[in-house]
From TrEMBL:
This is Dihydroorotate dehydrogenase (quinone). It comes from the Bacteria. The active site is at S175 (nucleophile). FMN binds at A63, G64, F65, D66, K67, T87, N139, N172, K213, T241, G263, G292, Y313, T314. Catalyzes the conversion of dihydroorotate to orotate with quinone as electron acceptor. Its cofactor is FMN. Monomer. The gene is pyrD. PANTHER family: DIHYDROOROTATE DEHYDROGENASE (QUINONE), MITOCHONDRIAL, DIHYDROOROTATE DEHYDROGENASE (QUINONE), MITOCHONDRIAL-RELATED.
Amino acid sequence: MYKSLIRPLLFKFDPEEVHHFTFSALKNFGFLTKLFLPKPIIDKRLEREVFGLKFKNPVGLAAGFDKDAKLFNELSDLGFGFIEIGTLTPKPQAGNDKKRLFRLKEDSAIINRMGFNNGGVDEAIERLKKNKNVLIGGNIGKNKVTPNEEAVNDYKICFEKLFPYVDYFVVNVSSPNTPNLRELQDKKPLTELLSTLQNLNLEKPKQKPILLKIAPDLTDEQLLDIIDIIKETQIAGVIATNTTLSRENLISENKTETGGLSGKPLTKRSTEVIRFLSEKSGKAFPIIGVGGIHTAQDAIEKLDAGASLVQLYTGFIYEGPELINEINREILRRG
């Protein structure tokens, strides 16, 4: 029903306006989803324990969809095993100028240059206080106006404030839409940032997993640096991958728009990064696989490459909520 009726209607309108409309509809009429959408699969065999947390199934929602923690309860009801909110920054910010979100329908892709638009960490916390037992990841970043040499302070603020309300953290230094942010992926600043957060973590009575979200555009040498950094800082794992700056083989009209590309064109590269990290590290840390998952087979390939969990974003928009069940059904079939 989604792909034959709902998606063609939604895709007639501006993607950012559709996003807000969908959020409003799910918030106010979410109970209707139980009538029109397939019932989520609940099965003990789908449960996973990763970095000390118990996931009801291995299919999560990636950051960027529910930036401000407005809909995590309703989205969880669709069948996701976990929800990642954010990217959140210490202070609210409007993000980049509109228009900043573009569908590439012929490529089953999206380009975004949102720029960490969010209402700030304090606003999100007020909503997280109403969490109905949803496993939540908190994706954190820096404000656009914060220079890189002071970025660690923004991450510290978000970490400390969010700590009581999320189950794991994701350090986002890989978005291409905040000026100079990806420079923080360099070995020295990244090691300093992650060490600072991990030291704060170790001061807590009970620690929470810290993950690093990386870009798909890193070279093999840079990925080897990532493995070294994780070993040195002892963070819990990696999310591979964020959006790409590559525009290779695109055919859609909007292919020249600036920003991060997500969707099917990223499928192969994100899986390559997962496999590289898993093999070169000797499976030393868990990986959450994200990027171009539009079918159950796409998810299985990432799990086979070394991912412990997967996340959806663009595939969820193009394929609809049934994709969650399709992936979980295939996992069960494979045993």
